[in-house]
Design a protein that fits this description.
Blueprint lengths: L8 E4 L2 H12 L4 E4 L4 E6 L3 H11 L8 E3 L3 H5 L6 H10 L4 E6 L8 H4 L4 E5 L4 H10 L3 E2 L14 H8 L5 E4 L10 E6 L2 E6 L5 H8 L26 E3 L10 E5 L10 E5 L4 H18 L5 E4 L8 H12 L5
Parallel strand pairs: 1-8, 2-8, 4-6, 5-9, 11-14, 12-13, 12-14
Antiparallel strand pairs: 2-3, 3-7, 4-7, 5-6, 9-10
Helix pairs in contact: 1-6
Length: about 325
């Protein structure tokens, strides 16, 4: 198009749609696709041009690395040096919402922008059947951050993708809402121990059971993996966390029944308090309330338990509530 934008096609996630999407990927285009966590913005991880285009489409800082999605453990091993400890986690939890940050194999053809200057690469094997089919047909690993403008609320439907990136990417594969609804858990490794770089779709308690100990906290505040920026996942409206009451004009988001005195827009992540349901609904609820508030005002967020998936939910809410850059 004359203004530099392109038509973003919505492709049904059937055999024909996946074939079309794979052809676009092989031709250097960007295609958003569903995973079990959120929709990812996929490009050929072996192409400097395609991975640079991902950063450009999202407005993503070039120091923030990308996750590479692989078809299976063998494909991940071709890119990264997988230690016995990392291998134990991969065998137990892949395919699934776990990303491992590992040393890059020397001499691999992985595009430089993927690692953002770091000696590591973040890899995972997605469980979603459409993601698996796309990886199989594209025959290349896919660099794929969340398919939204950098710092904004992550997308869990194709409509969310089109709202944020329509006109900037070639296509989106529409397979309906994502099941998990939160990004993957990210683990790194330091001194023979696992380090939790980002809580996500696999609770820390599950990791501890496999590892025999809790993952350590990062020794540095430097960005080592996606999702570590202080301000992230943010709607236009401000968030007030751990709210036990409502102020005039505020929207409300929380677990359990809706407060009787709620006068503005409201959303319960789970009336029964189920954290898996809450995680799957978080981003859609934030988007809905933000739209109802016109991108202004305040969303009061009730307390969320910090156990299980609650840790990842709270992480996203804290980053969404952080002061915005600029």
């Amino acid at each position: 198009m004359a203004d530099g934008t392109q038509e973003t096609r919505r492709l049904v996630a059937d055999a024909e749609g996946v074939t079309e999407a794979a052809a676009l990927i092989r031709n250097g285009q960007l295609v958003a696709f569903p995973t079990e966590t959120v929709y990812g913005l996929g490009g050929n991880a072996l192409s400097n041009a395609a991975t640079t285009a991902i950063f450009r489409a999202k407005g993503r800082p070039d120091f923030n690395p990308l996750i590479v999605h692989c078809a299976d453990l063998a494909a991940a091993e071709a890119l990264a040096e997988i230690s016995p400890l990392a291998g134990r986690l991969a065998e137990a939890l892949w395919p699934g919402p776990l990303t491992l940050v590992l040393p890059r194999r020397p001499g691999i053809a992985l595009a430089d922008p993927v690692s953002a200057g770091l000696p590591t690469v973040a890899v995972r094997v997605p469980a979603h059947p459409t993601a698996q089919a796309l990886l199989s047909q594209a025959s290349v690993p896919l660099a794929a951050p969340s398919a939204n403008p950098s710092g904004a609320v992550s997308p869990t439907t194709a409509d969310h993708v089109l709202e944020g990136l329509g006109g900037r990417i070639a296509a989106v594969l529409d397979a309906g809402p994502c099941v998990v609804g939160l990004e993957s858990t990210i683990l790194g490794f330091e001194g023979g121990r696992s380090v939790l770089l980002r809580p996500g779709g696999i609770p820390a308690e599950v990791l501890a059971e496999i590892l025999g100990e809790n993952p350590a906290s990062p020794a540095t505040a430097a960005v080592q993996a996606p999702g570590q920026l202080a301000s992230h996942y943010a709607p236009g409206a401000a968030l007030r966390l751990n709210a036990t009451d409502l102020e005039p004009g505020e929207a409300w988001l929380g677990l359990g029944p809706i407060p009787n005195n709620a006068g503005g827009p409201v959303a319960s992540l789970s009336v029964s308090g189920d954290l898996a349901e809450a995680a799957s609904r978080l981003y859609a609820a934030l988007r809905g309330l933000d739209a109802a508030m016109g991108g202004h005002g305040t969303i009061a967020v009730g307390p969320i338990p910090s156990t299980g998936l609650g840790a990842a939910i709270n992480d996203r809410l804290q980053r969404a509530a952080a002061p915005r850059p600029g």
